[in-house]
Amino acid sequence: MKNMSFSRAMIFAVVCALAMPPLAVPVLAQQAPLAQQAPSAPVAQAAPAQPPAALPQAAAPAVPADGTATPAEREAKTLKAAAAELKELSPWTMFKSADVVVKAVMIGLAFASLVTWTIFIAKMVELAVVQRKVRSALTKIADARSLAEAQFALGSKGSVLASFLAAAMREARLSAGISSDAGIKERAASSFAEIVRAESRRVRLGMGLLATIGATSPFVGLFGTVWGIMNSFIGISKSQTTNLAVVAPGIAEALLATAIGLVAAIPAVIIYNHFARVTKGYLELVNRASGAAGRLLSRDLDRTHVSGGQRSRGAAE
Known about the structure:
The protein is mainly alpha-helical. 84% of the residues lie in helices and 0% in strands. The radius of gyration is 55 Å and the shape is rod-shaped.
């Protein structure tokens, strides 16, 4: 009986053991999600952190929706255009791309330079011709004894000496019958002075323009430079870049105006100083011609008095 009771007890225990696992599985299944949810909370908090590969994508510039270029792309295009322009930079290119005011300044200075060289060529020919004429005339009348003989020696060639001789003979004719030689010589000297002043004005014609060009051309060129640099700074403010490749063309155009101003001014000053020396030498020749005519007039007056005295003595005898 005891063995049968023990066997029944063992069978009951085995049956209970086999029945318990299905009851424990739902409990474990309910605890498993809790175990999985517990460590997932820190992971959810760290989720905003992005890997390093995402940073360049965030820093990349956004392309505008309308398809226009970004400021960086515009600056790159501007630099490329400026670099291409620098490669082709020449005086003619700078003139064509300059502002209207700067172009007007350059054209005016170029015209002033042309006027300077025209005056130089014309005055060189004129002064060489008149100097040769005066020297030749002085040589021809060196042995003349009277105004009439001097006029005959000169012939019909026009020179300032011929004007002096004509003025002296006119004064002698108008003063016929006047015994005061001093008055005749004074009036003749006054006529000679007027001829000298007229000749001085004639040979100095154009030198005032040379002086004006030499004095004002640098300042006119500087005005063009200031205007061009002002436009360059305006362009810098519009392009919002201070890169030298962008700024250089405008500044080069502005400096070209100053260069042309100096090209017009320096030759004008040199030519003016040269003509001042040459004109001074020519006026000395004119004064020599005036003195020669005055001496011939004085001889004629003395000869007239001598001839008149001889006739008076002959009449008295």
